[in-house]
Specification:
The structure holds two protein chains of two kinds. Chain A has helices at about 20-30, 85-95, 100-115, 120-125, 140-155; strands at about 1-5, 10-15, 50, 55, 70. Chain A contains five helices and five strands, in the order E-E-H-E-E-E-H-H-H-H. Chain A is globular and about 50 Å long. In chain A, helix 2 packs across helix 3 (about 100-115) and helix 2 crosses helix 5 (about 140-155). Chain A folds into two domains: about 1-75, Roll (Ubiquitin-like (UB roll)); about 85-150, DNA polymerase, domain 1, CATH 1.10.150.120. In chain A, strand 3 and strand 4 form a beta hairpin. Chain B has 18 helices and 31 strands. Chain B has three domains: about 25-30 and about 460-580, Aldehyde oxidase/xanthine dehydrogenase, molybdopterin binding domain (Aldehyde Oxidoreductase, domain 4, 2-Layer Sandwich); about 35-135 and about 180-270, Aldehyde Oxidoreductase, domain 3, CATH 3.90.1170.50; about 275-455 and about 590-740, Aldehyde oxidase/xanthine dehydrogenase, molybdopterin binding domain (Aldehyde Oxidoreductase, domain 4), CATH 3.30.365. By secondary structure, chain B is of the alpha+beta class. The N and C termini of chain B lie far apart (about 85 Å). Classes of the chains: A alpha+beta, B alpha+beta. The interface between A and B is large, with 55 and 59 residues. The complex binds FE2/S2 (inorganic) cluster (2 copies). One FE2/S2 (inorganic) cluster sits at the interface of chains A and B.
């Protein structure tokens, strides 16, 4: 069956057999491998994308169910060389080691900051509790995002 | 020709928190991991695995599977063209099952098909019949039957030495998984001339290469192993997983083949941390001086050897920890069973015994009525002392007492913070009422060898190339996320006074081995090689031009630029290659004595936990640490290693364990194998002691493993302090706290 999904502002039409996940179709059919496949069972958040406004695990969404939807993936956050503030915050804090969890953190954190530009530490922890990182122990991710929140609170100074 | 120009200072040299060169692609989602690779016309590979822990294969029929549409190849044991076994220390593991399967998940056949779905259908169509055999899964029984990979005894000092105060105990550690987030994956592309290029995430491309060419039965120059993007490793990528299978399929079909394990397959596709059962007796004088330590360590290696012999040695050599003791006897047994193969994981044997000896130190302090920190200080190992186990004289730096004292001086956190359920043991499950929570504090100290030991010829190669725009560092060292790539750049920048440094990962045909990214060795080894190569190149250039300074603009004499960098690159010398070795180590004698290690690091951890004793729930509030790092090369990257390592140590303490049943893993998925999340992450206060190593670059020591070693027993000690329960096994389960 042929489905059409708008990903990062671009319409993609692809044929699917039926059982493929949105993650699989993004990675294999749409040449957008940024969303990661660490567990493919909804437990790690490495595949996080925004689907019609909600952060979801794209490994748990059937591609056919996303037909006609709008999706934003990690590839849709930087404007060419200008990084999204969350991307810069993760780098500055040291929150990127192997980076396999990073796409999921970028998406989940960007959506958090979109709704709440000045989250507390606990709000950051809670919002990102579905994203597993095996390398950093989370401290560096937290520090980077706390600093972004502090900067936002200070009026972007 | 002379130019008069101002010199520019290099900004991101040694000691700065220089940015990772791969950081921007990683946050943009553009960084190519091995699981992201594809090639035009690539087939999908898949693996048929044993559903039994032990069985004879009585029938294997691939006929029906070959008729599945889209299938290009199905290969079994008979199709392995060369040596039919592989292995890190000894080739004992069949590339594909040899008629018998010895662990649950052992590969039997591999398939290449047009897509993943076709490959899956082909696997289902392969007919295998088994004569199921009783699996040997009890390590104690295996030891009785002499089913072992290594037995060893370390004996030192007077066996008759006796202390007035004696404590004994049994301790167990569970089987932990490295669980790197990036699954095993690779892409093999045949070159059309009888050879193949493999792109894979590995910790050591050259040792993969050796095993691949042996299995393919081809000359070494037919196979090139290329490092692709690596999504974490922690020991899981030291052994061959899909490397040989991919090359076989590509050679057989003449087409590119890719393979990506899913998470369940990843859990059986790599080795794990050895589970252990340990018995210890510590004897001390009444004032707390250790007199004698005896231990029996039983580690289970599972079905195949992997790096089990070296893990056994490490567990035994570090069985006493960083403490002076002149009478020691340690028996180590590494068993062979039908459990999943175990091998390298961060800490490599030193993790298991640290839980044993640190639990004993607390027990001894209790028996002596002494403060546990004082007991550790009283026995703290220092330069000039001898290793309690091997008798090796400690040279260079080993600031054991200092890490303990500084750790004790870090202020403790204030009491229970009940402002948010995240801070309570039950978390957002809202199970715990703040009034029930009890707090505990525990200390532990650990020690680890750095780099390879026991006379292993440990080397790494680096080639430095000067170009008009800067410096290239060529290496085959694996960047697994830890930041070696950044540290190499920083060293080159500082030596050559050039800001622009590129690290280029060569394939196995372009440069010699860098050795493994393991054993906390790459900062000292490949970092050391970069220091040596850049220093030698700089000195050659200065000598050639009678100059006194080199930087990005060129060669300087007495404040004047005499040769531009463009001209220097044309005239040379502009290239330098080194094979760098650490000082040699010795093989142990029959009693495990000798100078078997090249360098050591110590770290101390203090855990603060809040426990709900009714429900047996634990929240690790904070883990503080002071670590012996020699010299800080990149503070931000170093903190990253420390916090990440602590998190894995906390995981082993309270939640991470592969649960086995008759050799079968019951929780090979992220739903049931619990990884610490943001909700579980303790705050960390980390400090460093900088006492230079005797040979690391700028005095630096490897730092990746110590955080994972003593953090586990520190958490266990804190739970003991909070609950009064004995806590002799990790991970600690609610039942151990409730006392059921
Ligand atoms: S890959 Fe989707 S949650 Fe892990
Ligand atoms: S950086 Fe490796 S998993 Fe997060």
């Amino acid at each position: 069956m042929r489905i059409t999904i708008t990903v990062n502002g671009v319409d993609h039409s692809v044929d699917v057999r039926g059982p493929e996940s949105l993650l699989h179709v993004l990675r294999e059919e749409m040449a957008l491998p940024g969303s990661k496949n660490a567990c493919e069972q909804g437990e790690c958040g490495s595949c996080s994308v925004v689907l019609d406004g909600d952060v979801v695990c794209s490994c748990l969404v059937m591609a056919v169910d996303a037909n006609g939807s709008t999706v934003r993936t990690v590839e849709g956050y930087a404007d060419h060389d200008v990084l999204h503030p969350v991307q810069t915050a993760l780098l500055d804090g040291g929150g990127v080691q192997c980076g396999f969890c990073t796409p999921g953190f970028v998406v989940a954190a960007a959506e958090l900051f979109d709704v709440n530009p000045t989250p507390t530490s606990d709000e950051i922890r809670e919002a990102l509790a579905g994203n597993v990182c095996r390398c950093t122990g989370y401290g560096a991710i937290l520090r980077g995002l706390e600093e972004l929140a502090a900067r936002n609170a200070g009026g972007g100074a | 020709m002379t130019f008069t120009t101002q010199r520019r200072e290099v900004r991101s040299g040694v000691g700065t928190s220089a940015d990772r060169p791969d950081g921007i692609p990683k946050v943009k989602g553009n960084f190519a991991y091995s699981s992201d690779l594809s090639a035009h016309g690539a087939l999908w590979g898949a693996t048929l695995r044993s559903p039994h822990a032990h069985a004879r294969i009585t029938r294997l029929d691939i006929g029906p599977a070959l008729r599945v549409p889209g299938v290009s190849a199905i290969l079994t044991y008979d199709d392995v063209p060369g040596r039919k076994v592989f292995g890190l220390e000894e080739a004992d593991q069949p590339v594909l099952a040899d008629g018998e399967v010895r662990y649950w998940g052992e590969p039997i056949a591999v398939v290449a098909a047009d897509d993943a779905e076709d490959a899956r259908r082909a696997l289902e169509a392969i007919v295998v019949e088994y004569d199921v055999l009783e699996p040997l899964v009890d390590p104690e029984e295996a030891a009785r039957r002499d089913e072992t990979f290594r037995t060893m005894t370390v004996r030192r000092g007077d066996p008759e030495a006796r202390g007035e105060v004696v404590v004994e105990g049994y301790y167990d550690t569970g089987m932990q998984d490295q669980a790197p987030l990036g699954p095993e994956a690779g892409l093999a592309i045949p070159d059309g001339e009888g050879g193949v290029d493999l792109y894979v995430a590995t910790q050591w491309s050259h040792v993969d290469h050796e095993q691949i060419v042996a299995a393919l039965g081809v000359p070494p120059d037919r196979v090139r192993v290329h490092l692709s993007g690596i999504g974490g490793a922690f020991g899981a990528r030291e052994d061959v997983s899909l490397q040989i299978h991919l090359c076989m399929l590509a050679m057989h079909t003449g087409r590119p083949v890719r393979m990506v394990y899913n998470r369940a397959e990843s859990f059986v596709g790599h080795v794990h941390r050895h589970p252990s059962r340990m018995w210890y007796r510590h004897e001390a004088t009444r004032d707390g001086t250790l007199v004698r330590v005896t231990a029996r360590l039983l580690l289970d290696g599972g079905a195949y050897m992997s790096s089990s012999r070296a893990v056994m040695a490490n567990a035994a050599y570090f069985a006493v920890g960083p403490y002076r003791c002149d009478s020691v006897e340690v028996h180590g047994v590494m068993t062979r069973t039908n459990n999943p193969p175990c091998g390298a994981m961060r800490g490599f044997g030193a993790v298991q015994s640290c839980f044993g000896y640190e639990s004993q130190m607390d027990r001894l302090a209790d028996a002596l009525g002494m403060d546990p920190v004082e007991l550790r200080l009283r026995n703290a190992l220092a330069p000039g002392d001898h290793m309690p186990t091997t008798g090796q004289l400690i040279e260079g730096s080993l600031p054991t007492a200092e890490v303990i004292e500084r750790l004790r001086a870090i202020p403790l956190p204030s009491g229970l913070d009940a402002t948010h359920p995240l801070h309570l043991p039950g978390g957002t499950g809202l199970t715990t009422s703040p009034g029930d929570v009890v707090r505990g504090v525990g200390y532990a100290v650990g020690m680890k060898n750095l780099m390879f030991s026991e006379a292993f010829d440990d080397f790494t190669e680096v080639r430095i190339v000067l170009t008009p725009v800067g410096v290239e560092i060529h290496t085959a060292a694996a960047e697994v996320g830890q930041g070696l790539i950044t540290v190499c750049q920083q060293i080159a920048r500082s030596v050559l006074d050039m800001e622009h440094v590129a690290v280029i990962f060569d394939d196995t045909s372009q440069i010699g081995s860098a050795g493994s990214t393991s054993a906390s060795r790459q900062t000292q080894m490949t970092g050391g090689a970069v220091l040596a190569a850049t220093t030698e190149l700089r000195d050659r250039i200065l000598a050639e031009y009678g100059a006194d300074r080199l930087d990005a603009q060129g060669v300087w004499r007495e404040g004047e630029l005499t040769v531009s960098v463009d001209e220097l690159c044309q005239r040379g010398p502009a290239e330098h290659h080194v094979r760098f070795r650490h000082p040699p180590t010795a093989r142990p004698d029959d009693n495990g004595q000798g100078d078997v290690h090249v360098d050591f690091a110590v770290a101390a951890h203090r855990a603060v936990v809040d426990v709900d004793p009714e429900l047996g729930l634990v929240r690790v509030v904070r883990v503080d640490t002071v670590q012996d790092v020699g010299k800080v090369l990149n503070p931000r990257a170093l903190v990253g290693q420390i916090e990440g390592g602590i998190m894995q140590g906390v995981g082993l303490a309270v939640m991470e364990e592969l649960v086995l049943d008759g050799g079968r893993i019951r929780n090979a998925n992220f739903t049931d194998y619990l990884l610490p999340t943001f909700a579980d992450a303790p705050d960390v206060v980390a400090e460093f002691v900088e006492e230079p190593s005797h040979f690391g670059p700028f005095g630096a020591k490897g730092a990746g493993e110590p955080p994972t070693i003593s953090s586990t027993p520190a958490v266990a000690a804190a739970i003991r302090a909070a609950t009064g329960r004995p806590i002799t096994r990790v991970p600690v389960h609610p039942d151990d706290i409730i006392g059921l």
